Amino acid sequence: MMTMKGERVRLCAVEAEPMAEAGARWSRDSEYRRLQDSDPALPVSVAEAREHFADEAPSDGEYHFAIHTLDPDRLIGFVSLWLRWQHADAWLGIGIGDRADWGQGYGTEALRIALRYAFDELNLHRVSLTVLGANPRAQRAYEKAGFVVEGRQRGQNQYDGRRIDDVFMGILREEWKDGT
Amino acid sequence: MIDLSQQLFEGEFIRLGALEPEKDAGVISRWTHDLEYGRLTSAKPARPLSPAQVKKQLEEQAKEAREKRNRFDFAIRTQADERLVGTGQLEGLEWNHGHAWLQLSLGEAADRGKGYGGDALKLLLRYAFYELNLYRLTTACFEYNPRGLKFLERHGFVVEVRRRQAIFREGRRWDELRLGLLREEWERQR
After folding, report:
1. Which residues on B lie below 8 Å from A86 (Cβ)?
2. Which of A38, A86, A170 sits opposite B163 (nearest CB)?
3. pLDDT tens digits for B98-138?
4. Alpha carbon B90 to chain centroid distance?
């Protein structure tokens, strides 16, 4: 039976208010922001974050989940899938906001649940992501979940005066093994 | 000394110019009715567009370009008779990283293989690297388009990523290739 619950975390619907409050708090950590995407790191206000996470009717093209620890019940991050239905492919993005929660295996477990959802509920053929070349910790977590490096866009990013690759990873349905 | 009289928009067979929503929409609408046109450059479902829809798209692109300066769109017209034969785009610009996406398409099969594409690409590359001062360009090519791949490689693009089976068309799966070109590579090959 399909479940959104793991041993230590669960995925659930995003609620705009707590997510906006947390998102604004997490955005103050520039490392978190830089690892998240290629936009310039910038602290966002709660009001801006609220706009981003507005409670809207769910879209068929995007699936967003909040990551909560089970005990105590606490919001620690998010995971999103952006779909290309016509190719049965999705881009995955994940973030664990507070650095005290990094390296605890929360992301790995959330990733496993998200992949199960992608393959068993959305019936995707593959899931894709990019990870910053300067983020080996995340890359290892993705490899552990079954993602394979498919190439590198050389010098795609510039941070602190240095060029850093974008590493492209993908996992095919046939490569995916549901570990839980 | 820098020679500012060297023209940025004049090629051997073609010139880059502004797109004219009013005038060009009918031609581009005709191109979209051949699904191959869309399938060669985009992963989105190819779809026929009416002239009015194309005009709206072009106007929206121009508005975005004006407001955000994150895209540069060009018409490719023949030197001989100013006929619109294709479009070239530098889009999704990230100024902080010196990066943009490159798109180039010729509308009619009959206009391919005449040197228009190479001519336009040379101008777009010079514009990207010496006018916008970008560090690198990225473009995508699908496995079912070996001719496009050869064209890009001939102009210095390097396959950097092979997104396995990412495209589903004609009942089978194809790889999506990502190609990149760095300014220093382009300068070396000029």
Report:
1. 43-45, 168
2. A170
3. 999 999 999 999 998 899 999 999 999 999 999 999 999 99
4. 7
